[in-house]
Amino acid sequence: MDFLPFHRDELAAQALAGQGAGRAPIRPFMPDQHREFFALLPYLFFAVADEQGWPVASVLTGLPGFVQSPDPVTLRIDAIPGAGDPAAAGLAAGRGVGLLGLDLATRRRNRANGHLTAVDPGGLAVRVTQSFGNCAQYIQTRQPVAVAGTPGPVERFDGLDDTARKLVAAADTFFVASRSRPDVGAEGGLDMSHRGGRPGFVGAHGNTLAIPDFRGNRFYNTLGNLLGDPRAGLLFVDFASGDLVQLQGRVEIDGTAGGAPPAGAERLWRVKVERGWRRRGAFPFAWAFGNYAPTTLKTGTW
Question: Which secondary-structure segment (H or E) carries 16?
Fold first, then answer.
């Protein structure tokens, strides 16, 4: 079959890195194994753009089966963002969306990008235009158990506060929402991606995050998007408390990975955080840590 091409900023990112995947194994529909995988998940990470065009990274939750695929180009998600989620402003029919299905227990992950075709009180419908799998690199395993609870009030802050810095400094996992420039055409859009490393792999200095970019699948989807539009949305999860921290900031790419970065970094992102939200108890799971990915164990920290 014919796969979709990389967009031109992804190709530019590959050229800057001196390597690429050769072709993009991105389909304009979901294969059956992806459709069945999404239906197994109790959570789904997603990216939308807010009213100012900034990417927002967030997550939806439900009982397994809350995501269904009635046909190869459609996902129905029977959930809506919680109260105070900044992603809610980006949900409207016709708007772009990036989806990441990730099973933290097995390290399996698949992505699906497209457009919202319906938004109603019960959930969302997505027309999928890009579907592709990802490797299991840098994914730490965790086993979830659903728990009951009432989310606390949303806390809004500018830059990074001390509590957010502590969470970032202890994180071995986070998620990044990015978007392509509008003029790259149908190959672009919103994208949601995972990043992982040892605890301490993300450095927090004042309101700036220093994030190592480790060797990945050579698609450079996120890096290509950031070359065209440096705005990013980040999501950090406190797996002990269920708290979520969502951040927005502008990214500068340091292609030389200067400044004694963690071992394994091919380049650095420096994210100047402009604003954030803390949603206490918004991720309703208790987690049992499993182990670090073999690729994670080959990397360092600040």
Answer: helix 8-17
